[in-house]
Write a structure and sequence with these properties.
mainly alpha; 3 helices
Length: 107
């Protein structure tokens, strides 16, 4: 049933891995997420068209950053809702799923 037989050993391994990561990074880790083991994969995509208010003005770095951040936020929210509706996972499970997104592409 894919259960963990020696939970205390797994917890110790995670603790050691975090300690090693802190040493390697030369900083204390304040917050971390351990993803739930699952074979479920969620392939979701969003098509978001952003219409600039001042399209006649050349785009600058600040506006580009704003656009990308806004589109990324919209895509994450949209797919978060789709996964929630399809699975019924609670909010904490959805945070774990969303945190393990491996790829975002903008075109």
């Amino acid at each position: 049933m894919q259960e963990i037989k020696n939970l205390s050993n797994v917890c110790e391994n995670i603790k050691q891995a975090i300690e090693k990561a802190e040493i390697d990074a030369k900083r204390k880790i304040d917050n971390y997420i351990v993803n739930i083991p699952t074979s479920n994969l969620f392939f979701e995509s969003s098509r978001i068209n952003h219409i600039r208010e001042k399209h006649e003005v050349e785009i600058n770095e600040n506006e580009l950053y704003y656009i990308l951040r806004d589109i990324e936020t919209q895509a994450l929210r949209h797919n978060y809702k789709k996964i929630k509706n399809n699975t019924g996972y609670d909010k904490n499970d959805l945070k774990l799923i969303i945190s393990s997104i491996s790829n975002l592409k903008s075109d």
